[in-house]
């Protein structure tokens, strides 16, 4: 299912508001069945991009395709779901009435709408509230409702703009599980977020947006795994001889080596090599680059999120 | 998957879904209820006035009863329709000024317009939903005003169906203007704009009538231009002229909504008003088509 055809392709997509460039020549491809994380500081232009995708804003230049159709084909929107950053719904409706309206606009068969609505409401934990008026809902409940609305009718592509901004940690956990489930069903999830730890937990692929431009993009495992560090503790001082094109020795202290490898899979071979050369290893530790350190490196240290104490103590290994 | 069926939903159905939602919104938000309560109060006052007028005339033994009844009936009907026109105009503006603007501001439209619906379908649906509600309300209110005057005072009503049909155009013109404003401006700006337009039309009508009275062509032309810009008052004068014979009036009215004989709008003006509504809604769809939301 995953990694198949492209569901989103943007070429040179640009959006200007007067003199301000919100999106600057964005090239992007997203494959089917992925959870794609679109990261950036507040105001980087993430929402503008998603609004162009769902037809709320027209690009100034460039072109894009969704599910193989040009962006201006409004019918494609029957196959996508969208949770706006500014999630608000007709407060005088109940969730079931709201979803019935959206189901009809989507073109779902009338007979299926009720059952499908109850299913997505149960998924987001609003089954008991399905007949109450939306005006009585808390922010968090409204965001859950927005998620249900986006997932209604099993869309092939989901655009979620900061989907957990109003949720507590349990709610955030629930949303992550839902995203993984949507992916398992074959859907593609396009996730806008500045919550890096969250992205790190679920995304397959990411792109970093800074001042409207994509500054880094790729598979998360490659971006993070690309420069994995191995921390080797020794019983006695030792200097290894490493092959030219293999692991790289970063530092060698009295009883400690720091070696960079290109991926986790190289660690066993590295340990074998060291033992072969006579190193008396006491402990081996792996230090993975965190998404946050990568983010700070690419986007700069004015990032919205402050590093957590745990991250700070680990340090930004590759600054 | 569901998308297989999306082609089956036609433009007409989407317009109907939106219209149905707008119609329901008016009920749910208690706009109609509030208007009904106000209307019942107004009709009670109006009905009482008519009732006592009828009693007074009946007790008069001077023999001029029939003529008196007709004259007082026409007068009271005239005043009743004037008050109705204000209620209807305000209802149209207040219920529609935020139709688009408020939903853009709150973000409600982000959810709706990310669905497979064209923007013009949304605008037309909103106009039709609110328009249906306002048309029904107008027929009920103006129908009651005409009916009471006819029943109690035998007011000489000439063409009730045509008259009511023209009266319905009054709030629909303001509704179309409100939708047009709302597609680009804020709720507040739209409300102010529409109320000002309503007032301008009324003053324009007044100037036109005085112009007709004193034979001043410039004033008449000014009035005609204002009627073309906002044909609400023109439709009101036309409706009065259709409903009441000029001879039934105690005296020719000269007021914001007066109906001095010479300044009665023609049938062409009625057609113009209908076209005006269509063009305003069309302009709204054009203004809204490319707006960044």
Describe the structure.
The complex is a heterodimer of chains A (319) and B (293). Chain A contains 10 helices and 14 strands. In chain A, helix 2 (95-106) crosses helix 3 (110-123) and helix 3 (110-123) packs across helix 4. In chain A, strands 6-7-8-3-9-10 form a 6-stranded mixed sheet, with helices on both faces. In chain A, strand 7 (157-161), helix 5 (169-184) and strand 8 form a beta-alpha-beta unit. Chain A has 2 domains: 6-221, Rossmann fold (3-Layer(aba) Sandwich), CATH 3.40.50.300; 227-287, Alpha-Beta Plaits (2-Layer Sandwich). Chain A has 319 residues and is of the alpha/beta class. By secondary structure, chain B is an all-alpha fold. Chain B has one domain (10-289). Chain B has 11 helices and no strands. Chain B has helices at residues 11-28, 31-59, 65-96, 101-106, 108-113, 119-153, 160-182, 187-214, 217-229, 232-243, 267-289. The model of chain B is unreliable at 1-8 and 254-260 (pLDDT under 50). The A-B interface holds A 17, 51, 54-58, 74-80, 82, 84, 86-90, 92-93, 101-102, 104-109, 112, 146, 149, 153-154, 156, 159 and B 1-3, 5-9, 13-14, 17, 21, 25, 28-29, 106-108, 110-118, 290, 292-293.
């Amino acid at each position: 299912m995953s990694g198949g055809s492209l569901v989103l392709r943007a070429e040179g997509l640009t959006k200007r508001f007067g003199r301000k460039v919100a999106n600057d020549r964005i090239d992007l491809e997203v494959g089917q069945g992925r959870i794609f994380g679109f990261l950036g500081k507040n105001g980087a232009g993430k929402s503008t991009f998603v609004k162009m995708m769902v037809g709320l804003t027209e690009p100034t230049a460039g072109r894009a395709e969704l599910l193989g159709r040009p962006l201006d084909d409004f019918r494609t929107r029957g196959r996508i779901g969208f949770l706006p950053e500014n999630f608000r719904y007709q407060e005088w409706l109940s969730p079931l009435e709201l979803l019935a309206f959206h189901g009809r606009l989507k073109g779902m068969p009338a007979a299926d709408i009720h059952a499908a609505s109850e299913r997505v409401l149960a998924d987001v934990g609003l089954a008991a509230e399905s007949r109450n008026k939306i005006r009585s809902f808390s922010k968090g409940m409204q965001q859950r409702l927005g998620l249900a609305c986006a997932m209604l009718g099993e869309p092939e592509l989901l655009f979620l703009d900061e989907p957990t901004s109003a949720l507590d940690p349990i709610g955030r956990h629930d949303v992550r599980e839902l995203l993984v489930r949507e992916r398992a069903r074959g859907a593609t999830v396009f996730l806008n977020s500045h919550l890096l730890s969250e992205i790190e937990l679920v995304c397959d692929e990411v792109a970093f947006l800074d001042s409207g431009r994509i500054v880094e993009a790729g598979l998360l495992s490659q971006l993070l795994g690309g420069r994995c560090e191995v921390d080797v503790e020794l019983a006695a001082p030792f200097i290894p001889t490493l092959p030219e094109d293999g692991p790289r020795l970063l530092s060698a202290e009295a009883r400690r080596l720091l070696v960079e490898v290109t991926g986790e899979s190289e660690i066993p071979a590295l340990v074998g090599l060291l033992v072969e050369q006579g190193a008396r290893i006491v402990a081996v530790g792996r230090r993975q680059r965190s998404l946050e350190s990568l983010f700070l490196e690419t986007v700069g240290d004015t990032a919205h999120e402050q590093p957590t104490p745990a991250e700070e103590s680990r340090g930004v290994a590759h600054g | 998957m569901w998308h297989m069926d999306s082609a089956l939903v036609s433009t007409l159905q989407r317009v109907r879904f939106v219209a149905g939602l707008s119609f329901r919104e008016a009920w749910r938000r208690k706009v109609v209820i509030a208007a009904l309560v106000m209307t019942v109060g107004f009709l009670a006052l109006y009905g009482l006035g008519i009732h006592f007028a009828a009693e007074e005339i009946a007790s008069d033994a001077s023999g001029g009863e029939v003529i008196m009844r007709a004259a007082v009936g026409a007068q009271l009907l005239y005043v009743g329709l004037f008050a109705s026109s204000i209620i209807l105009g305000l209802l149209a503006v207040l219920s529609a000024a935020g139709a688009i603007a408020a939903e853009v501001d709150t973000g409600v439209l982000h959810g709706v317009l990310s669905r497979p619906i064209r923007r013009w379908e949304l605008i037309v649906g909103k106009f039709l939903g609110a328009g249906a509600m306002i048309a029904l309300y107008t027929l009920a209110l103006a129908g009651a005003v005409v009916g009471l005057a006819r029943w109690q005072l035998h007011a000489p009503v000439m063409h009730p169906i045509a008259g009511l049909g023209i009266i319905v155009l009054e709030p629909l013109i303001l509704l179309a203007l409100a939708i047009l404003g709302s597609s680009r401006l804020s709720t507040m700006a739209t409300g102010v704009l529409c109320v000002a337009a309503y007032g301008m039309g009324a003053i324009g009508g007044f100037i036109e009538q005085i112009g007709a009275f004193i034979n001043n062509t410039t004033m008449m032309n000014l009035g005609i231009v204002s009627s073309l810009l906002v044909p609400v008052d023109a439709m009101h004068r036309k409706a009065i002229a259709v409903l009441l014979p000029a001879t039934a009036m105690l005296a020719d009215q000269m007021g914001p909504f007066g109906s001095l004989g010479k300044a009665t709008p023609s049938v062409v003006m009625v057609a113009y008003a209908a076209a005006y509504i269509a063009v305003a809604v069309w302009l709204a769809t054009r203004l809204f088509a490319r707006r960044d939301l």
